[in-house]
UniProtKB/TrEMBL annotation:
Residue span, N-acetyltransferase domain: 33-180
Superkingdom of origin organism: Bacteria
Protein name: Ribosomal-protein-alanine acetyltransferase
InterPro entries linked to this entry: AcTrfase_RimI/Ard1, Acyl_CoA_acyltransferase, GNAT_dom
Keywords noted in UniProt: Acyltransferase, Transferase
Transferase keyword on record: yes
Signal peptide, first to last residue: none
């Protein structure tokens, strides 16, 4: 009972939910990358990656990114760069005890190098700090490669969402990663 009302616990909760991401340089497969929080000026690069990865389609608009970045709900949006060029990004928003990955994309030239997995692990750390119990996401039914990566990271299939993707009415597979210690 005392733990629940401890003022330090309340301060810690506020700190983690509003803590800025500390930018850093990382090594993946003997390559150096730079990771930081997304800024408004980055949206043009994000849209360019979307266009490349999704064959000309753009699931998120500039307005959608702006709204997410300005949201007051706890969230984390990261990009990764190679030699100052944005090559990938990820976003998540907390809904209660769930961290929902809203989008993730890695430039085709950099896929298969562990970048997407690294970004998901960063979201996992953010989720744990914020006392989430699950991480969820949707993936196209046809995107078997992404599903394989998510399963390798511990995600399990949950439900199918019919006609989730509006542009072609493709179904989505919802996948969930449990963060509860067993």
């Amino acid at each position: 009972m005392l733990k629940r009302f401890n003022p330090f616990n309340r301060l810690a909760d506020l700190f983690f939910k509003n803590r800025p991401y500390e930018e850093k340089t990382i090594q993946l497969s003997n390559e150096e990358y730079f990771v930081r929080a997304i800024k408004f000026d980055d949206i043009k690069d994000l849209l360019s990656i979307e266009r490349e990865v999704y064959a000309g389609e753009m699931p998120w608009t500039k307005t959608a990114f702006l709204m997410e970045l300005q949201a007051t709900d706890p969230h984390l949006y990261l990009l990764i760069q190679k030699e100052e060029k944005t090559i990938g990004f990820i976003g998540c928003r907390l809904f209660g005890k769930d961290a929902h990955i809203t989008n993730v994309a890695v430039s085709t030239a950099y896929q298969g190098k562990g970048i997407g997995s690294f970004l998901i692990k960063e979201i996992q750390q953010f989720s744990i700090l914020n006392k989430c119990e699950t991480i969820s996401l949707e993936v196209r039914i046809s995107n078997k490669n992404a599903q394989k990566v998510y399963r390798k990271l511990g995600f399990a299939s949950s439900t199918i969402k019919p006609e989730y993707y509006t542009e072609n009415k493709e179904d989505a597979l919802e996948m969930v990663l449990s963060l509860k210690e067993e």
